[in-house]
Amino acid sequence: MNQIHDPQLLKGVLSPLLLWLLAERESYGYELVQRLRQIGLTGIADGTVYPALARLEREGRVSTRLVASRSGPARKYYRPTDDGYAALTESTGNWLSLTEIVSPVLARPVPPQPAPPAEEN
Amino acid sequence: MNQIHDPQLLKGVLSPLLLWLLAERESYGYELVQRLRQIGLTGIADGTVYPALARLEREGRVSTRLVASRSGPARKYYRPTDDGYAALTESTGNWLSLTEIVSPVLARPVPPQPAPPAEEN
DNA sequence: CACAGGTACTAGACTAAACAAGGTACCTGT
DNA sequence: ACAGGTACCTTGTTTAGTCTAGTACCTGTG
């Protein structure tokens, strides 16, 4: 369902992304799904985001609080803990290092495909 | 064991990387490990690369041939198939799209300390 | 000749994480 | 009451990188 149709690529990226969004502004799950879609992850499923948030909470990277809403059930707001900020810094570094390695390679034009034995007619 | 100590980030990246290296030059497993280390993936384990190659072969993205070696056991040389070239183009596109979404976010400085609690609408 | 060390590949169990599908429940407007 | 949007959670499946261990070949040295 994602416009980027390789789920594997997202792995390891979603957590820092969520932490970054939460560092920018406290937010709740449903809203985070929308914010992720807004920045381009149009196909992200809520079944992907909620477990990721639960993971972050379990690991102590975010703290939560419930806030009643006028438009539906209570919202669970997340914000990074000190640990979360540290993790964000670290994983951002990891991501940037990786792109510095990978992008220069993949961005370069693919080497020409060796010419198959030409059968002409 | 990787200098980038988040294994998850590599997921989905290794295959295109291998295909790219093989498009550049036919190569065998052991050499590919060294080439990956050379471009910066210093911590990559051979136990990671061989299964990835087996996967590519099983999926028909690469073809192989055995060549005797003077310095050890026979080497299994890999080269991309037509399918492999197609997959390379596609997954390179996926990677570049993802970095275009993620990098502009993560590269931006992390927003400072907690904003006041969001008021609900 | 034995054996150490580099070369080269393979196999199996483990793990993390995205995703699909399904479910619960709240709230507003008709 | 009920439809539709809001909001959250859980379970099972699949993919793929990692760890560990093992096999086996080859050259050089004592």
Helix-strand blueprint:
The structure is a homodimer of 121-residue chains.
Chain A: H1 7-10, H2 14-24, E1 27-28, H3 29-38, H4 46-58, E2 62-67, E3 75-80, H5 82-106
Antiparallel strand pairs in A: 1-3, 2-3
Chain A binds a DNA duplex (30 and 30 nucleotides) through helix 1, helix 3 and helix 4.
Characteristic terms for this protein:
DNA-binding; mainly alpha; 5 helices; about 120 residues; homodimer; three-stranded antiparallel beta sheet; 3 strands
What is the strand arrangement across the widest sheet of chain A?
Answer: 1-3-2
Give me the Rg of chain A, rounded. Answer: 20 Å
How much of the sequence lies in strands of chain A comes to 5-15%
Global structural class of chain A? mainly alpha
* Strand tally of chain A: 3
The assembly state of the depicted protein chains is: homodimer
The low-confidence parts of chain A are none
Quick structural overview:
Two copies of one chain form a homodimer. By secondary structure, chain A is mostly helical.
Would you write up a description of this structure?
- Two copies of one chain form a homodimer.
- With 121 residues, chain A is mainly alpha-helical.
- In chain A, 52% of the residues lie in helices and 12% in strands.
- Chain A has helices spanning 7-10, 14-24, 29-38, 46-58, 82-106; strands at 27-28, 62-67, 75-80.
- Chain A has a three-stranded antiparallel sheet.
- Chain A is elongated.
- The termini of chain A are far apart.
- Chains A and B meet through helix 1, helix 2, strand 3 and helix 5 of A and helix 1, helix 2 and helix 5 of B.
- Chain A binds a DNA duplex (30 and 30 nucleotides) through helix 1, helix 3 and helix 4.
